[in-house]
Structures are given as C-alpha cells and as structure tokens.
User: What shape does this take?
Amino acid sequence: MAITLYSYWRSTAAYRVRLALNLKGLEYHIVPISLLPGVSEHRQDAYRQRNPQMLVPYIEDGDFGSGQSQAILEYLEEAYPEPALLPQSTAERAAIRSFCNSICCDVHPLNNLRVLVYLKETLGVSDEQRDAWYAHWIHEAFRAAEISAGNHGGPFLFGTAVTLADVCLVPQMYNARRFKVTLDDFPKLVAIDAHCRTLAAFEAAAPGNQPDAT
Ligand SMILES: N[C@@H](CCC(=O)N[C@@H](CS)C(=O)NCC(=O)O)C(=O)O
Assistant: This one.
C-alpha cells in the first residue's frame, strides 16, 4: 500500500512520524503543507477536508487516514511491527509511553505555533516573554527526563534499542535548539540525541533534509 505523509519540515510532530517510518524502513511520499504565517496551507479547504483538526502531520496508508502523531506512531507499530519501536515488556512499554506523553502532551501543546502566535498577537507579550515561556516548558520536561535518562543504560533513552521515546525526544531537542533554549543542564539528553542523529533513519528525517526545507 502507498503511504503518504502530509508534513512540514519544521513540525516536530511530523518529524516524529518521519522517524518512525524511516526506522521501520517504510517507503512513503511526502506532501509538504506549509505552516508559514501568511501561507497556512493547513488552514485551507483542500487540507481541512482531509484533516479537520488543521494540524500536521496527517498520514494516509491505502484507505486508512489519521492525524495526531501519537495515534500514527501507534498505528505504525501495530500495522508494521518489525522492527519494533516498543519492547516486549508491558512495564517498559508503559515507561516509554509515559516519556512520550511528557513531551507530546505536556510540552508540545504549550509551545505549538498557534499558542506562540496567540501569546504574541492576541495577548501582546514581547518576543522575550514568549521565548521565556517556551524555554520554561521545555526545561520542566527535560529536567525530569534527565533524571531518569541514565536508568536504562545507553546509548538510547531506554537502553540499547531505539524506541518511540527517542522518536519523541530528538524532534523536541531540535525545536529547543531552534528557539535557542540552553541545554547545558541536560548532558545525558544531549548525548542520546547526538547518538540517535548518527543513524541514517534520523538523518533522513531531519528538518533540513526535507523537500520543503528552506
Ligand atoms: N497533538 C498533535 C499536534 C500537532 C501539531 O500541533 N502540529 C503543529 C506542527 S508541530 C501544527 O500543525 N501547527 C499548526 C498551528 O499551530 O496552526 C500531534 O501530535 O500530531
């Protein structure tokens, strides 16, 4: 079946899905959806008819279609189980999902484009205040992650195999750097991120290597 991913090069949520697709060795076609202010293809009718949530990513796999990166990651794990991005152990799977939620539910929604635009354009906060808001929520989650990062050995977040935890960590690290958040307090996360990015699947998913990167 042909897989199509509606993606934006800088979207951390789309970056997660690109990573999972690459790690599973799946072929897919990218349709770029520009989130650039003034372009906003994700808010236009053509895309809204496909995904009324007006967010990227969105995936189509034959007749199946879904938005929401977490739902897509779980779909891919179930539909294409090999190589697995979750371990066999139920407890470890829960721990990995817990980390993923700390990024995808507790950080990302607070720092999403529409939130940052609302802070600035509707509430009138300065660029400095907006950036402080952004860094604050990153630091909250990364402080917790840094404490447990060494608990499973390395070189990945949960030991010797790449998992969905790394798939969620690396895009958030990219986004933190994009917004110039200091990462000095998180040496273990920095090392894990650097290791992940040596893998070809991560390199191919990187924002700068996407067809719509500018
Ligand atoms: N919970 C969603 C979040 C998706 C999301 O927020 N995508 C961002 C890009 S990373 C987006 O489309 N933003 C458009 C906007 O904020 O208007 C997911 O995990 O897929």
Remarks:
- The chain has a mean pLDDT of 96.
- The two ends are 30 Å apart (CA to CA).
